[in-house]
Description:
This protein is mainly beta. It contains 10 helices and 43 strands.
Amino acid sequence: xxxxxxxxxxxxxxxxxxxxxxxxxxxxxxxxxxxxxxxxxxxxxxxxxxxxxxxxxxxxxxxxxxxxxxxxxxxxxxxxxxxxxxxxxxxxxxxxxxxxxxxxxxxxxxxxxxxxxxxxxxxxxxxxxxxxxxxxxxxxxxxxxxxxxxxxxxxxxxxxxxxxxxxxxxxxxxxxxxxxxxxxxxxxxxxxxxxxxxxxxxxxxxxxxxxxxxxxxxxxxxxxxxxxxxxxxxxxxxxxxxxxxxxxxxxxxxxxxxxxxxxxxxxxxxxxxxxxxxxxxxxxxxxxxxxxxxxxxxxxxxxxxxxxxxxxxxxxxxxxxxxxxxxxxxxxxxxxxxxxxxxxxxxxxxxxxxxxxxxxxxxxxxxxxxxxxxxxxxxxxxxxxxxxxxxxxxxxxxxxxxxxxxxxxxxxxxxxxxxxxxxxxxxxxxxxxxxxxxxxxxxxxxxxxxxxxxxxxxxxxxxxxxxxxxxxxxxxxxxxxxxxxxxxxxxxxxxxxxxxxxxxxxxxxxxxxxxxxxxxxxxxxxxxxxxxxxxxxxxxxxxxxxxxxxxxxxxxxxxxxxxxxxxxxxxxxxxxxxxxxxxxxxxxxxxxxxxxxxxxxxxxxxxxxxxxxxxxxxxxxxxxxxxxxxxxxxxxxxxxxxxxxxxxxxxxxxxxxxxxxxxxxxxxxxxxxxxxxxxxxxxxxxxxxxxxxxxxxxxxxxxxxxxxxxxxxxxxxxxxxxxxxxxxxxxxxxxxxxxxx
Length: 741
């Protein structure tokens, strides 16, 4: 795919670092298959001819190859690799389907960068099946000019196809990949392939995907397995291993690309777990992209999973449920395969498989373990299959590095019940019974413990069984007098571990009458219903009921629990700002003589006063004097109401001649035709909220204004010049005479 030029700071820095370090990704194991597996590789070059001095400097953007599995061969995995000269084209098409890499590779030769890319195409090949595969839009045309002069221009692609076939022997097929190179300046490349298990040399083979090899350059170009040079003449002579050939098709024109495999039965030995691959080149530059090794294998592969850990409260004994698997194997796992269990690395027990576990089979079992005192309550439990207890195994396996499984375990313990002081309540009617607030015991029972549920019982048997709890522990009446044992059950909400305990409640006789508290109601100006300072101690006249206040201690609290426990008393009860409306206040009364406690409550209710216009903001009510000029006249007081307040159905408004009458709500004045009794005169107003009874007051002035004096005897006289009885008058000429001004 033709690349557009998108240069970013990140890409510049990234490319610079890559070039600075001359990165080459080591060849390491990517995937391993154990069973009746083999593989085939397809692919093609984009070069039109072998590169080199004088060769054409052009390249294709697509090429094709054919897959032809037999009906007995079932595809299980397909891996696409593509590579070339330059920094990379990572957007290609496979049979028209867009592909981007999940991994990329890079290296340099003679300071020039080369790239590789990988993606899994299993799903596409399973859907398409056999046929022609075309990789397209791999466009390196703009990249290769700097490479052509030195014969380093190339591009191509390959797919490794792993298949399963019932007639095959059990094999271990390992796929390794990376991006390592050998060339004149770096003539020796040594690769060690790990995680192999040679149990038979029969049919052993190795395959390579290599880039940039030249058929015409054969200068000490060798491949050695475990120190022995291998060859496959006539395609791959011993001195020219990478020469543009394809062992799968017999092609010799896979320009600057090699898809080759070799028989290595003579180069490996039974018991080998690694393989040394050595490449040399005295001139030709070669990049190794992947290696596939196929070995005969008849081995189990033991793995283990801890399914569950069963814990017992207050015990270091645990039961571990586990399952041993023999997946990705080529032989059964024999009975009596050892299993060891470790707690934070300390061996705490062992077990073994019971029966032979077939290929892809499993076996579940359990083991009882005791965790030593020295191991912390929270630890890592590790199960290791094929381990005799010292980290070593006795069963050869296809993979010796997947035998362990770990989980974090926390031992569980019962809650701890702290000692509880006897709860004492006054016997107010001397009948031996009283109401107890049992919940105050929880502070002493629990201490700092959390996530614990406390329930209360009348018998130990009920507490142990968790049945018939006391349903009203906040208002429990004793059934035995003067003392009674209350049993409790503390249960951890997460683990269900529990413990039982008990404490005493006691009824003490007293000659003190129960206090009866009335609710406190207040009227305040708004707009807020909270934050008003309340004197809570006005209740103490009722609380003491004539008793000697020095015999008692009274405190005020925000909730019943605090009052019963004697904690968090309101520090300044004579000036308490309410925080809710209405708000319940709890009172704790302690008889200092006999040390018994009573609690009670009352409610603070705040009502907001009606909103009225203050006297300074009221306008006088002014009227002119009537026909009798005596300073008295009739006023319709009702007309002032809109100025005084907003009338609603729950608001009443009345007028008075004195503040005393207004305060006492007596002698109200009529709304209409009220005659003032002095001039000026103050009218007092009472505005009442009929729902709450809150009343507020204001006042305003009645003022009678004097009427002006009119002289009706004055006249205007003009001469009738034309004797017609009419003339123009200026009436304002009479103003001075009329007003006596």
